[in-house]
Amino acid sequence: MTMARTQLMVNGTDVVFCGPDDAYLNQLDDGSEAELRLFASELLSGGAVVLDLGANIGVTSTLIALDTPGSRVIAVEAGPATVDMLRDNLATNGISNVEVVHAAVSNSNGRVHFHESSAFGHVTDDPHAIDIESVTVASLVERLGLDRVDLIKIDVEGLEPDVIEGCSDILQRLQPIVWMELNTWTLLMRGHDPIAAMTAIVERFGEVHRVRRSGGPLLDRVGDDHTPAIEIARTLIHDNIVRHHSWEDLVLVPPGRTLDLSLSRPVAEDDTDLLQRTIATMQNSYSWKITTPLRVGARWWNTRRARAGDGSSSTST
Question: Are 189 and 306 found together in one domain?
């Protein structure tokens, strides 16, 4: 396995991540997880507990731990090699408020077979794959003695419905907000009927919100209190395929829990500092500097064309 290294700037601190040289690591930049970080910073307070299910090499856990120093983050990852990289990244960056659990999260406790492929491993029926422990969220909470869970992030390559099924007691008792990846393709690959799976998930929650990445409000509620769960599910799956290339994040609010309206305010207002840092990093990069002549030339050419257009129009009138 070829390894790679990338460095990010988080709240003025350099953070280093090492992992497989693949698309996941290579797409990381200073704006990584911007929406989740913004949401978590608004949602979490002192002593907050976060479950990062499908923690991968620890990017989300590290960023939340740095953004909310008083929080307790439980990073759960199934892949043995990935867990080693996760622990190494936490140690390298001096992160002390993240605990690592090596297990797959599902709807039952026991053992499962796991196929570890780069940074995108998954549970499989292949008997020759790695044998690892499987836990439910409910059993994990009991094992760790947690009396609160504020946020659960779920990214488990198509087994999200199984994870939700295994935490129904926690949803009722502790009422955590859930940040979940929706990927129709991975749901199909894990044998789920996407509409049926999403209908079952929607029925467990009071509100379902899309996470927007194109400006405007951060959260966009799908349906309302009177919309049937199957209609919300059909809308989600249709738009996930047609508009979002089978990949987007959802925020799920359990019954009886209210979401602070400030969490839905425009990203452009909330995320100004993060965007400015990202722009500054980009402008100081080598690629930005070597392409400066191209941008200057383009501005000169566009200005010349605009003036020529103004001149021709004034002559003809």
Answer: no
45 and 181 assigned to the same domain: yes
Q: Annotate 66-114 with DSSP letters as a single string.
A: HHSTT-EEEEEE--HHHHHHHHHHHHHTT--SEEEEESEE-SSSEEEEE
> Which structure tokens are listed for 109?
């406790």
Name the 3-class secondary structure at 177. Answer: strand
Buried b (16+ CB within 10 A) or exposed e, 13-38: eebebebbeeebbeebebbbbbbbbb
Say how far apart CA 18 and CA 91 lie, in whole Å: 11
User: 137 pLDDT band (50/70/90 cuts)?
Assistant: very high
Q: How many helices (H) and strands (E) does the chain have?
A: 14, 14
pLDDT in tens, 4-56: 888 888 878 899 999 886 677 777 776 668 899 999 999 998 899 999 999 99
- CA distances, 207 to each of 48, 129, 153, 225, 261 (Å): 22, 38, 16, 8, 13
Residue 173, domain CATH:
3.40.50.150
HSE on the CB side for 73, CA within 13 Å? 27
Residues 117-134: what's their mean pLDDT? Answer: 70
User: Are residues 105 and 232 both part of a single domain?
Assistant: yes
Residue 309: domain span:
285-316
Q: Are strands 49-53 and 104-105 parallel, antiparallel or unpaired?
A: unpaired
Q: pLDDT-based confidence at 268, cuts 50/70/90?
A: very low
**Considering just the CA atoms, what is the radius of gyration of the chain in Å?**
22
Question: In this predicted structure, what is the pLDDT of residue 258?
Answer: 86
Query: Using CA atoms, how far apart are residues 18 and 7, in angstroms rounded to an integer?
Result: 9
Q: How many domains in the chain?
A: 2
Quick check: is 277 in a domain?
Answer: no
Is 41 in the same domain as 177? yes
